Amino acid sequence: MMASLRIIAGVILLIFGRQVFWLFVAVLGFFTGMDLANQLVPESGDLAVLLVAVVVGVLGAILAYFFYHVAIAAAGFVAGGRVGTELVAALMPLSPQTIWVVFIAGGVIGAILMLLIFDWALIVISSVLGASVIVQQVSAEPTASGTLFIVLIIVGIAIQAAIMRRYAAPA
User: What φ, ψ does residue 111 adopt, rounded to 5°?
Assistant: First the structure.
């Protein structure tokens, strides 16, 4: 059940990350809550993990709705940290201390990008994050996973850019 929820959320991020910012923050919060619950209480069942994930996701959506600029920076930080750790972890094994350093560095870069070039940063970050979530749920050899990851990123960016142009074009 959790794998299918992750794939659905990954597809939402991949295709609609920019169009519905509060949903991007909610899905990002959902994944963060799911990961936190699994790390803090590893023996908890799927229901407890799902409950924590939903609560964190809803809090993220509320933050995005009422505190837009804070939510942009926070979402950029969390997404940049997650993307940074996943990209570096794909290149080399990371110790627990290194993970935090990479997460913070990626988070700072993600927050700055989100604040400076919001639309394109959100498109790229949500596409990378969505692709990463989907690929993590697919059992494949490393070469196939890497190819799928790159293809999904390109597809996500292309779809979101096309949607952005369609709504930005004069009627």
Answer: -65, -45
Measured in Å, how far apart are the chain's first and last C-alpha atoms? 43
Output the six-digit token pair for 156: 């996500």
Q: What is the spatial distance between Cα 21 and Cα 126, in angstroms, rounded to a whole number?
A: 10
**Helix residue ranges per DSSP H, the chain:** 2-16, 21-40, 46-66, 68-91, 96-116, 118-137, 142-168
CA dihedral 77, 83, 89, 92 (to 10 degrees): -90
Tokens 């990463």 label which residue? 132
The model's pTM is 0.69
Q: What is the pLDDT of residues 31-72, one digit of tens each?
A: 888 888 887 777 877 788 888 888 888 888 888 778 878 888
If pLDDT is split at 50, 70 and 90, which confidence band does 118 have? confident
